[in-house]
Specification:
Umud Fragment, subunit A; globular; 243 residues; alpha+beta
Amino acid sequence: MTDDPSERLRTLAAAAAPSVQADPGLAGRVLGQARRGRRLRRWRNLLLGLGAGTVALSTLAAATLLGRTDFFTVVEPSGAMKPTVGISERVVFDRSLSPARGDIVQIHIAYGGDEYDAIFRVMGLPGDTVACPATAAGTCDAVTVNGVAVAEPYLDQATAPFAPVAVPAGQVFVMGDNRPAVNDSRYHGPVPLAAVSGVAVQIKSEDGRVRLVPGAPPHDGPGDQDNVDPAGPVPPARAVPAG
């Protein structure tokens, strides 16, 4: 028996209808259509594969952007910034901003052999003198910067008096908003400006509501097209003043 597919088709056609003269070109046309079908399926599978590859590359590119965008999110682990930022609330920071007085920042603290990241408010810039002068009653009416009282309506507790501190070049004086329960620049002194990793632009409550940062200069938050790095591991709480 011949192995030619065309001959086999002609033989089968003749056996099925011996009185009918089979079209000699029928087998060739049938085989041609089969070959075209196989080619179309190959092209379809190739295009589907390319589409899947594009999706995979897009996912990889998006993942690669993490850690490279201007915006990132940090979960507040302690009560150091209460009532401005509650425990477990999320703060959105902008890496591209330089801190100004009143800004809330994330800053890396290295003190007493310990290192950690903390969220504090910038009270003094290089060249400033920060103090909380004592009244006759032994209390402090307001923190002063270069002798001028700072209005802080976002606080819910008074600040204990502390002596003037001159902020050196390249450093900032930071304080938590929960003044009685925070280990900040009143205890360990100003910290390097280079240790600031971001300036807060938004605060997000646990139910998803977004609010601006009270007492800080206004900053633009991320837009719909901006990538925001998700919150990483929650850092340990550091809110107890040094003894």
